[in-house]
Write a structure and sequence with these properties.
- By secondary structure, the protein is of the alpha+beta class.
- Helices cover about 30% and strands about 35% of the residues.
- The chain folds into 2 domains: about 130 residues, Probable inorganic polyphosphate/atp-NAD kinase, domain 1 (Rossmann fold); about 160 residues, Tumour Suppressor Smad4.
- The strands form 2 sheets. It has a 6-stranded antiparallel barrel with strand order 7-9-8-12-14-13.
């Protein structure tokens, strides 16, 4: 029986540079006999619904884009409850999930479609009271509230285009430093509550973010049934700038203003609605409820990444 493939393509990935790369990849895929149905979102966040529809008639659902695209396709696949496997063609700016699964290149990703092994990974289910589209999304890399989200907001498509994946988040950091205001947040982490003003709140499913330059969740593993929670208390801009290298390297977990632990459920409540970012995209606003869905996704990965 032939494998049925469906491609959900984000033409806006990598600040629009994904379009040309997809056309080249498409020629190679079709030549190899890996043709499939193509679904192109017409508006932001349409990928969830397109993926839900595509999953019903696919054995492999391919996310063509960056981490935000993968998150949307995974959300649609989980919503459909279909047995299709998830695959990635990494055409985004950071491609964090792909790289940490061992997918290092576009050609390597294409090779996985006929030859990849299936790995089961966790997802973080995110329910926001105020969302731009669907009320339920799934993060595969991280969910954050606070300064990291402001860095993402300030790293605009134009900045990504001008400075590229290596430097764009540094520019976003400098812009965020001038605009960020610490929100007052009540955090319920499983059975423990925290309340105060926070610089950074994050639930991580993967260790690295930002194209491998930020070790947001040291030690995090994507198939252990837990997410890694980081809470960093408010601090003034000079202190943020001074300690930012610790966030890049992961040594921030030893800072006296930081708390770092594992959990399965997180509730975030704020005085005024605050943006929630998942895998690089804004998914909605607080209040938000996060919970782990253990090993719920079947994803194609190289043999070296392990499989189950």
């Amino acid at each position: 029986m032939n494998t049925r493939l469906a491609y959900v393509i984000n033409p806006a990935a990598a600040s629009g540079r994904a379009v040309a790369r997809w056309q080249t990849a498409r020629t190679d895929l079709w030549r190899r006999g890996l043709a499939g149905a193509e679904f192109v979102p017409r508006a932001a966040h349409d990928g969830v619904e397109l993926a839900r529809r595509a999953a019903a008639d696919a054995d492999i659902l391919v996310a063509v884009g960056g981490d935000g695209t993968v998150s949307e396709v995974a959300s649609g696949l989980l919503r459909a409850g279909a047995p299709a496997r998830l695959a990635i063609l990494p055409l985004g700016t950071a491609n964090d999930l792909a790289s940490q699964l061992g997918i290092r290149s576009l050609n390597g990703a294409i090779d996985l479609l006929p030859n990849g092994q299936t790995r089961r990974i966790d997802a973080i289910e995110v329910r926001c009271a105020q969302g731009p589209s669907n009320p339920v999304r799934h993060a595969l890399s991280f969910v954050c509230l606070g300064f990291a989200g402001e860095v993402l907001r300030q790293t605009t498509p134009a900045i990504k285009r001008w400075f590229g994946p290596r430097w764009c988040y540094w520019i976003g950091f400098l812009r965020a430093l001038a605009t960020y205001r610490h929100p007052n947040v009540r955090v319920q982490a499983d059975q423990t509550a925290f309340h105060g003003r926070w610089l950074h709140i994050c639930a991580g499913n993967l260790e690295w973010a930002g194209g491998g330059i930020m070790r947001l969740s040291p030690g995090a593993q994507c198939a252990d049934g837990l997410f890694d929670v980081c809470l960093i208390e408010a601090m003034p801009p000079p202190a943020i700038a001074w300690h930012f290298p610790k966030l890049l390297g992961g040594s921030f977990v030893k800072h006296p203003r930081a708390r770092y632990f594992q959990g399965t459920e997180l509730v975030l409540e704020t005085e005024a609605p605050e943006p929630i970012h998942i895998d690089g995209d804004m998914a909605g606003r607080t209040p938000a409820h996060l919970s782990i869905r253990p090993r719920c996704l079947h994803i194609l990965a190289p043999p070296s990444a392990g499989h189950s």
